[in-house]
Specification:
The chain is α/β, with parallel strands linked by helices and about 350 residues long. It folds into two domains: about 160 residues, Glycogen Phosphorylase B (Rossmann fold), CATH 3.40.50.2000; about 170 residues, 3-Layer(aba) Sandwich (Rossmann fold). It is about 35% helix and about 20% strand. The protein contains twelve helices and 13 strands. Strand 11, helix 8 and strand 12 form a beta-alpha-beta unit. Helix 1 packs across helix 12, helix 2 crosses helix 3 and helix 5 packs across helix 9. It is elongated. The chain starts with a strand and ends with a helix.
Amino acid sequence: MRIVQVLATSGGLGGLEQHTFNLSNELALSQEVHVIAHPCYAEKFSANVIFHGLNFARSRWNIFLLWQLKSLIQRIQPDIVHAQAGKAAGLIARIRSLLPSIKLVTTIHGTKKNKSAYLAGDAVIAVSQALAQNIPKDKVHVIYNGVYPQPALKVEQKHTLINTIQANFPRLDPTKKIVMCIGRLEPVKNISLLIQSIQNIDANLWIVGDGSLKATLEKQVEILGLQNKVAFLGFRTDARDLIQLADVVALSSDREGFPLVMVEALQADKVMASTKVNGVVEWLEDNYLADIGDHQALTIAIKHALQPQAKAEFELLFKKAKAELTVTAMAQQTLSVYQHLLEN
């Protein structure tokens, strides 16, 4: 089977991008996989993937971009074209009439009011049950995001990592538990809510990530007098190692599709507390959830997650995540969607 994956972002390294890297690399173990994406992502794909660089920094209405994309797909002559997220789906929808022989799959990664571009697909994949709403049942498939298992850190590796962080942030009390947040410092992640929530919690907050709101959030920490318990670690390539140091992983977003940080936390046997965003509400129990935008409720959820009994309450969820939220399972289910289209 010859498959083309289209990733139309241009520099981001969030869940959408990681999903596409993982899916493409896994499918390429058994199929002929081509990826059309911005040149900045070339090194993220394995040698088994045939990479085609295209400048997706241009508008989805750019005629030259549309012509280049159409010509590239025609040259590859794939059986399946898979558009990842809104911009890719919109671009392919506009040139679909010029590609009559292909089967098109689109994937919805986030909350969208207008899903018309996705409906151009012969099949639509949603990464959570909530995102599958208002898509015809004969067309939609729910496939959860998966990640590769992260090797467990040795005790000495954990100590080294903790000591390095403590050396960089000497104000933090090393005896306190660690609440960890991993995500872009952008409005949709609402890290400000989490900072409010940590005020009345006896724990340190490690914020892993970077973004346009960094200075604003640092100012908030200063105003609230939380410099002794909040650390901004910035963008880290070892975030999946850092998560193994957390006592609780917290998510304060206003919107999500199916957050990879939840998958990584559960696979690392880490208890979570989160706002009631898509995907998360399909996995976590109510005691660990807070209404979106409610910092007091998030405080309660985090305190509950810090209790000794929380680990036991998550045990079945940890096992389920290790079985179901894997790249292998995600790829096998996606391949089944492709095969079904080609057989019908």
